[in-house]
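FORM 7B - TANDEM STRUCTURE REPORT

SECTION 1: FIRST PROTEIN
SEQUENCE AND C-ALPHA CELLS:
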Amino acid sequence: MTSSDGQSSAAGAGRLVLAGTPMGQPGDASPRLREALGSADIVAAEDTRRTRALAASLDVEISGRLMSYYDQVEAVRAPGLVEAIAGGATVLLVTDAGMPSVSDPGYRLVVACADAGLPITCLPGPSAVTTALALSAMPSERFCFDGFAPRKQGARRDWLAELRTQPRTVVFFESPHRLAQTLADAAGVLGPDRRAAVCRELTKTYEEVRRGRLDELAEWAADGVKGEITVVIAGASETDETVGLDEVVERARRLADSGLRLKDASARAAAGTAYSRRDVYQAVLESRGE
C-alpha cells in the first residue's frame, strides 16, 4: 500500500499529522487544525495545558487522548506513538507555537514513522521563521535558518564566524536574556554595519520589529528585551578573496591601536575576507613576536 505522501505503508495503518499552531493569535489557526483537534485519536502536545487552552479558544472539544510530548520525553514516547499509528490511529502532533520539529519536538517521531513506512502529513500554519523574514526588509529569495544561537560565547562567536561569508539572509532564534550579548558578538564578528532585524512577540499584542545596524541593535538590546525573539541578519556581500593576510593583519593592528581588544579587532578586520578571526588574531600575535 502507498500512502498519500508517496510512502509505502502497511494496510490499516493510521497516520501522523503535523500541525502548525498559532504563535499568539488563536484566530490564525486554520480550519483544518480545528477539525484535527476535534477528531484525532491521539493529540500529542508539547504542553497539554496550552493545547487545551487553544482548543477552548477555538470552541473545539478534544475527543481523543491528550498526552504530553516534549523534549525530555520524546525519545521514550515516540515508539508507542508509532505503534498506535501502525495500529490505525491518527496522531496529531502540536507544539506550543509554530511547526513541530522546527526547533520544537517532533523530529524523532517523523523519522520513526518514515522508517516504519507510515503515512505522514502536515497541516501548514504560522511560522516565526518566515514571518520574521517577511517583516525584516532583508532579501528573502535565498535564506537559511539556523535554529537557536549557541549559548556559550566561544561557540557563538565560532558560529558567527561561519556566517561571515554566508551570502544568504540568516534567521535564528534567541532568548531575551542573551540577545544583547549575541548582537554585540555579531557586530564584532560580522562587522558593526551589517544590517539586521530583531522581531519580538510576533503576532502578539506587543509585537515589535527593530531594524538597523548590528551595533545599533546591540545598544538597544542592552537595556533589556522581553518576549520571544527571532533575529534576521543580512547576508554578506561578496567575499574579497584578493585581500592578502598581511593587509588584514595590518588593519587589525590599527584597530587594536585605536583601543579595541585584539580579538574584536581581528574579527572586524577579518569580516568580508577569506580569513577567520582566529587566523588574523594568531598572525597579529606572531607579527609581534608573541
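SECTION 2: SECOND PROTEIN
SEQUENCE AND C-ALPHA CELLS:
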Amino acid sequence: MGTKRILVTLGLVITGLLLLLIVFTTWYTVDESEQAVVISFGQAGEPVVESGLHFKLPWPIQRAEILSKETYSIHFGYKQDKSGEIVDKETKMITGDEYIVLTDLTVQWRIVDPKKYIFNAEEPIEILRDAASASIRSVIGSSTIDAALTDGKAEIEAKTRDLLTNLVESYDIGIAVQGVKLQDVELPNAEVRAAFTAVTDARETKNTKINEAKKYENQKTKEAIGQRDAIKSEAQGKKTARIEQARGDVAVFSDLYTEYAKSKAITRERLILETLEQVLPKANLYIMNDSGETMKYLPIQQLPQAPPVETKESEQQAEKGEKAS
C-alpha cells in the first residue's frame, strides 16, 4: 500500500512537471528589436521577425533562439598603460615601406540571417574578428607610413571596409558589415611618435609656404595680366588715332592733288613756300649772285638793336637831375 502511494505520488509529480514544461515551453515572445528562429529536432525554420507572442511545440521537440536585430560593434586595437606605452602587441603591423605601426579599428555589424548565424559557423564573432584583422593588415601592408599616419586614413578605412565585406560575404555566416571606423594609427613608442610629429609639422609648414607662394604667384599673375590688358588697350587707342590721322592726311593730300590738278604752277609755288615756312622758321637768308661769289648781302630779317652806350656826359646829366630832384 505504501509503495503504491509512492508511485502514484511520483506519477503525479512527473505529470505536473511535464505540464509545467509544456506550459512554459510552448510560447515565446519577440521584441521589436529581436528576431527568432524555431528549431525542430535540429532543423531551423524561417526567421520570425514579427514582434509579439508566438507559440511552438514544447521542448525538446522545438526550441526558439532569440537574436537581436541591433547593430553590434567589435573593437580591434591597442591599449596603453599609464605611461603611454603600448601593452597590446597583437595590433602591430608592417606598412608597405617596412615601418611598424599600431592600429585601432572598430567594426559595426549585425545579424541578417539567423539560420546561417546559428548553423554555418560555431564562433561567427571570432570569425568576424579574424577577418577584420586580416583586412586591416592587408591594407596597411600595401600602404606607406605617411598615408597611414596622415591624410591616407580615409582611403585605408574604405579599402578595409570593402575587403572585410567581401570576406564576410564569402564566409556566409549570416553577418553583414555596417561600417568600419579607423580610430587611430600610432607608432610603437613615444620617441618615434615625437620624431614623426616633428616631420609632420615640417610637412605642414612646407605646404603652408607652398600655398603662400601660389597665392603670391596668382596675385602677381593677375597684376601682370591687368598691365598687359592696359598696354593692349593703350596700343589699340594709339592705333585707332594713327589710322584716323592717316585718313585725315589722305583726305588733305587728296584735296591738294585736286587743286594741283587745276593749277599746277600756283599750287607748286604755294607748297614750296609753306614747306619753307615749316622747315626754315628761324633761318638767316642771304642773297647771292648767280656765279656763287659772296657779295654784300641784304638782311631780310630785322637786325637786333644794340643797347645804348652810356657816356660821361650822360652820366653827369643824370647826376645833376638827381640832385635837382
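SECTION 3: OBSERVATIONS ON SECOND PROTEIN
Helices lie at 2-25, 114-119, 124-141, 145-149, 153-171, 190-262, 264-279, 312-324.
The CA atoms of residues 145 and 267 lie 94 Å apart.

SECTION 4: SIGNATURE
Preparer initials: ____
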